Structures
1.
Amino acid sequence: MSDEAPEDDLDAYVGLDVRAAENRAGERGWGMVRKLSPGEPMTMEYVPSRINFVLEDDVVRRCWQG
């Protein structure tokens, strides 16, 4: 697993179902995928190779690196 983020368009994940988003993240080279519910507490450490999804009804509503 690389410590660097791949070149990717994070906005392209918004609106994808969780399986498609996870598959895309794997294909693009993200080292980790973190899935969260709206308002769910999370740790604040920054991990450059991690992509974060906020999911509602198994659809990505928000996406960011770290």
2.
Amino acid sequence: MKLGILDTISLAATLVFAIPIALFGIERLLAGQTLFGGAFVVVAVLMVVLREWLTTPTDVPASAAQKVVGKVAKTEDEKE
């Protein structure tokens, strides 16, 4: 999976919220609250996975901006 600049920033923003939720879920799992902890881990995983699958209204301008950036900033492999 090849991520552009905007995709990488979006993934990082998602992980900022998903990682603490996952850590809390793991902490609850280790404390013996399997249902509660497992639910939080599943929510954290779904946050990251659904970000890749779903198209939101903010994805449309981001996609257009990514195409513009891709045309302006080409890598060495693309220039050949």
3.
Amino acid sequence: MASRRPRAHGLGREVIFAACLELAAATGPEGLSFGKIGRQPGADLTAVYRNFADPDELLLALADRVMAMGREGCLPDPWWR
């Protein structure tokens, strides 16, 4: 009987976002794939598909997350209304 990879419990969007950022830092954006993203936290490709319908949905959500990270701690100038 073939051995199975241990199931990654709690693999949600936050874990997937962290895996994306870690992989992108190590390999550049061209190194990202659903399979690599799933394997990073010890899961597999299907774990990513349980959270995102397709790569486009993941990319849009990741872009939103990265932009939000860039805005953290930023306050508008007093003249901004």
